[in-house]
Specification:
This protein is of the alpha/beta class and 313 residues long. The chain has eleven helices and eight strands. It has two domains: 170 residues, Rossmann fold; 96 residues, N-(1-d-carboxylethyl)-l-norvaline Dehydrogenase, domain 2 (Orthogonal Bundle). It is globular, with a radius of gyration of 21 Å.
Length: 313
């Protein structure tokens, strides 16, 4: 993938798409954001300015260009597309069919889908070899990880080239070598969540204590070492003995926990409805978002000597 023109197109101007655009602009690229909603486009300038300040970038706001329609993008300049539209397979398939027609033949077509395999999105398209998954995590301009997901038809070498691009943008890319549901990080996250909500259903611990056990216990150590390195610290025999004791009693249900299903049935979806595991109003949401982003920024500062250095262009 030639890094000459340095133009990226991000389809979708919601929080995820806007954050992905921030990572490209901060790395010296021109970020074209395609968003049909006039109201959403109107808020992007302030959002971009705040995001650049958060990550300590001096990039100009002129590195962002917003478009209401796909056909308004200067496609002859675009080297990579990142799709960030709602998680509806039919919408994604239609979009990539349009992109196949509009984009240059050598433009990389990537999807930020968190659930649909790239092979499912690419099914029936003629240029599946240039398609891959590029899965960010909210807030995408702060969370370093990006999953690069290939299908069996993705061109050999392309995932590694995109990984190098992500590294140049200051991200930490991981290669997911098989196109499976949930990819890498979300599979591990859901394995933890399944056990956490099983414990909640069984009345073994409260939501507050479950969160505390993760944040101030083993989750605290994860900032310094992942599960593989942690085993080297602790000793394989210790983990193996503990696993033999615990694994038979761990939840292996194939259904979401009652703690989740019952709340969804009652319309208790979290901050967006004012109630989830906890109660929310406008002020508590504001305070929590400030606290949350502050902790993420502090974590980034702790890890800064291990993160790739971002090219400012």
């Amino acid at each position: 993938m030639k890094n000459t023109r340095r133009h990226a197109a991000i389809v979708g101007g919601g929080n995820m798409g806007a954050d992905v655009a921030l990572t490209f602009a901060a790395g010296g690229w021109q970020a074209h954001v395609i968003e049909p909603s006039e109201a959403t486009r109107a808020r992007l300038t302030d959002y971009f300015a705040k995001g650049l300040r958060q990550i300590g970038s001096n990039a100009s706001l002129e590195r962002f260009t917003t478009h209401a329609r796909l056909d308004a993008v200067p496609w002859q300049d675009v080297e990579i597309v990142v799709e960030c539209i709602p998680e509806k397979l039919d919408l994604k398939r239609k979009l990539f069919k349009d992109l196949e027609r509009l984009a240059r033949p050598d433009t990389v077509l990537a999807s930020n889908s968190s659930s649909f395999p790239i092979s499912a999105i690419a099914k029936g398209l003629k240029t599946q070899q240039r398609m891959l998954g590029l899965h960010y995590f909210l807030p995408a301009h702060l969370v370093p990880l990006v999953e690069v997901v290939r299908s069996r038809k993705t061109k050999t070498g392309l995932p590694e080239q995109v990984g190098e691009l992500m590294r140049a943008l200051g991200k930490v890319p991981v290669q997911v070598r098989k196109d499976i549901p949930g990819f890498l990080a979300n599979r591990m996250q859901h394995a933890l969540s399944r056990e956490a909500f099983s414990l909640l259903d069984a009345g073994i611990a409260s939501a507050e204590d479950i969160d505390a056990a993760v944040r101030f216990g083993f989750g605290f150590r994860f900032l310094a070492a992942g599960p593989c390195l942690q085993r080297d610290h602790a000793g394989m025999e210790v983990h193996t003995a503990a696993a033999a004791t615990m694994y038979p009693s761990l939840s292996n249900t194939d259904k979401p926990a009652k703690a989740l299903r019952s709340r969804v049935a009652r319309g208790e979806l979290g901050m967006k409805t004012g109630k989830g595991f906890f109660d929310w109003d406008a002020e508590s949401i504001r305070r929590e978002k400030v606290r949350y982003e502050g902790k993420l920024l502090a974590g980034l500062d702790l890890l800064k000597d291990e993160l790739p250095k971002r090219s400012e262009g």
